[in-house]
Automatic annotation (TrEMBL):
It comes from the Bacteria. Keywords: Methyltransferase, Transferase, Ubiquinone. This is Ubiquinone/menaquinone biosynthesis C-methyltransferase UbiE. The gene is ubiE_2. It comes from candidate division WS6 bacterium OLB21. The keyword Methyltransferase applies. GO terms for molecular function: demethylmenaquinone methyltransferase activity; S-adenosylmethionine-dependent methyltransferase activity. It is an enzyme of class 2 (transferase). Its EC number is 2.1.1.163. Residues 71-189 form the Methyltransferase type domain. InterPro entries: Methyltransf_11 (IPR013216), SAM-dependent_MTases_sf (IPR029063).
Length: 352
């Protein structure tokens, strides 16, 4: 699929690194760092990691000679790559993994992470190698173009928390791409967020809009434009439209409720401690709940003034509240304790 805009990959593992390097691009270290912090905040349990590995049965795809070929999409900072590297070492089954990630800085973090994980032990590098590519997977034919993967050349495709970061139309094209590069019997394993058809009485699309407003206020405009949450039913329809057999699609779900129970949490979601932004986000949340369902206000919710919060936390920290008064109305409250009911789960789809 020769194309002049193919970005050369960076190989880590038993393969020699090519002389070419990833095309220069201004790193976005802030976004890479934030992804790591958000991962810590939302948390991943040992049970979820175990379930994820069980969804990737390397032995089913190993012929005793050739390494299992994997493709990790929206690879981020290398969490999946590290888990699969450990999986390969534990099972003794060699894996060659291609990764594609649009953010150059995250790719750099992932490469450093895998280099550190593999160390200098040649036996570990014999069992896992990674070829990292910069690129946008949501463009039609992007997988073949970016990773130079032929049709029916990949055993397993994984994508963790990536599908909800793209619009519905892009998901549809991506899944068609995935189906094309998978071998017959190959599998897609997606670990992602599911939004109920109605979130506490609120249509899922409204949850997407509220989160988009939060991203806009926080200055993450590209996320606000591209992100679109989906329900389990929508994802299943997209998979069948891509060609996957409906009888060979399975979905599990871990239900959890996302609660913004402190003002500190609100500031973290915004990525800053700008009180003006906090007020804007609070207004968006109260409008959202007021329009649809006040039951989303959690039992632990409390109301406090931003002034009281600032006085409490910043009088001795160099910030004494100066400059807040002009942006505060007489009754400017910040309500915490919002609960948003969403779930994460693993979907498996096997190619006919």
């Amino acid at each position: 699929m020769g194309s002049p805009d193919i970005t050369p990959g960076i190989i880590i593992g038993k393969l020699e690194a090519p002389q070419e390097t990833i095309a220069s691009q201004r790193p976005d270290e802030d976004q890479a760092s934030r992804v790591n912090i958000l991962g810590q905040l939302h948390g991943i349990t040992p049970e979820q990691i175990r379930n994820f590995k069980e969804a990737i049965p390397l032995a089913n795809y190993y012929n005793g000679v050739d390494p299992v070929i994997m493709l990790d999409l929206a690879a981020g900072t290398g969490f999946v790559a590290e888990q699969i590297a450990q999986h390969a070492i534990d099972t003794g089954i060699p894996v060659t993994m291609h990764t594609i990630e649009i953010n150059h800085a995250m790719n750099a973090v992932a490469r450093a992470r895998i280099e550190s994980f593999l160390g200098v032990d040649p036996s570990r590098r014999d069992l896992f190698s990674m070829l990292a590519h910069d690129g946008d997977i949501t463009t039609q034919g992007g997988i073949e173009r970016l990773a130079k993967l032929r049709e029916a050349s990949v055993d397993i495709v994984s994508i963790k928390m990536g599908l909800h970061e793209m619009p519905m139309a892009n998901k549809r094209e991506l899944l068609k791409d995935v189906y094309r590069v998978l071998k017959p019997g190959g599998r897609l394993v997606s670990w992602d967020v599911f939004v109920p058809e109605r979130t506490n009485g609120t249509p899922a699309i409204e949850y997407t809009r509220f989160i988009a407003e939060k991203d806009r206020i926080a200055g993450r405009g590209s996320m606000a434009i591209r992100r679109e949450f989906h329900t389990k039913g929508e994802l299943k329809r997209l998979l069948t439209q891509a060609g996957f057999n409906q009888e060979m699609i399975s979905m599990s779900q871990y239900s959890w409720v996302r609660t913004w129970d402190t003002i500190e949490r609100w500031f973290f979601e915004l990525g800053n401690e700008n009180p003006s932004n906090l007020i804007r986000l609070n207004q968006a949340a109260t409008d959202y709940i007021g329009r649809y369902d006040e039951s989303m206000l959690g039992d632990s919710a409390f109301t406090g003034t931003l002034r009281e919060y600032m006085d409490l936390h910043y009088t001795n920290g160099g910030f004494d509240g100066t400059g807040i008064d002009p942006i505060l109305a007489d009754r400017q409250y910040v309500v915490t304790g919002y609960s948003f009911e969403i779930g994460s789960g693993i979907s498996i789809a096997i190619k006919k």
